[in-house]
Amino acid sequence: MKAAIISDIHSNLEALQVVIKDIKKRRIKRIFCLGDLVGYGANPNECVEMCMKEADVIIAGNHDWATIDKTSIDKFNPIAAEAIRWTRKNITRQNYKRLEGLKLTHTIKELFLVHATPQKPENWNYLFSLKDFQGQFSNFRGQVCFIGHSHIPAVVFQDANGYTDFLRDNPFPLIKNRRFIVNVGSVGQPRDLDPRASYAIYDGNRRYIEIVRLNYNVLLTQQKILDSGLPEFLADRLMIGK
Ligand SMILES: [Fe+2]
Q: Whole-model pTM?
């Protein structure tokens, strides 16, 4: 099986279009989406509809659940909360219902898909440090867990002895006796100081995973955010990837 794993689109249609086009150009047939289709950007409906059309599996993210009031925005920063209120006003009933139908995890062969963490995914915790990742390996089966949520691409492996470390190689081989947690980064709002859209390719036959970065029309996305009345900061951050 070969698949593309996308996450954290955040209503950024220009970035999503570029990513989907690249996936199709590579003739990858399957797309798994790890959630946060909406929130922050100006095209929630277009992004929900495009994900529904293109993705084989879609997992719920915290912004998806916040939009449908399934998770509280109390823990959201004021700008993120404002974007959720804007999204609630602008999303169609049909797309609202589509967000209600998303599930928290999905297992497909050796892959485990979740938005935030394998352990208690509904708590929306963040994995940043090696210690954060270490505690998660006992909470999923299979060789690879794909996550999003932090908007920062990262790969952590654990060997048969329990040794855990970050992996900097890209692409990297799916070595036997190693398990992996892969943060695929964000399509629509990268935060690793690289503004390019991010997604991952999984090749189960050739046994490798690759993180792909792509330029898109950031200026157009920014203009849409400014025109929509969303907070200006949400436009500014896209150019610097923060
Ligand atoms: Fe997100």
A: 0.98
Tell how far the Cα of 229 is from the centroid of ligand 1, in angstroms.
20
From ligand 1's centre to the CA of 160, what distance in Å? 31
176 CA to centre of ligand 1 in angstroms: 31
| Over residues 104-109, mean pLDDT | 98
Instruction: For residue 202, report the phi and psi dihedrals to the nearest 5 degrees.
Output: -110, 125
- Pick left, alpha or beta for residue 149 (phi over 0 → left; psi -120 to 50 → alpha; otherwise beta): left
Tens of pLDDT, residues 57-68: 999 999 999 999
CB 37 within 8 A of CB 71: no
CA of 7 from ligand 1 middle (Å) equals 8
Contact 20, 51 (CB under 8 A): no
Between CA 10 and CA 16 the distance in angstroms is 9
Q: Please give the mean pLDDT across all residues of the chain.
A: 98
Lookup result for tokens 């690249």: 22
User: Ligand 1 mean position to 16 CA, how many Å?
Assistant: 14
CATH architecture observed for domain 2-240: 4-Layer Sandwich (3.60)
Number of neighbours of residue 63 by Cβ within 10 angstroms: 29
How far away, in angstroms, is 63 Cα from ligand 1 center? 7
Cis preceding linkage at 195, omega within 30: no
> What is the Å distance from ligand 1's center to 136 Cα?
19
Q: Please report, for the chain, the start and end positions of each structural domain, with discontinuous segments joined by +.
A: 2-240
pLDDT tier at 156 (50, 70, 90 boundaries)? very high
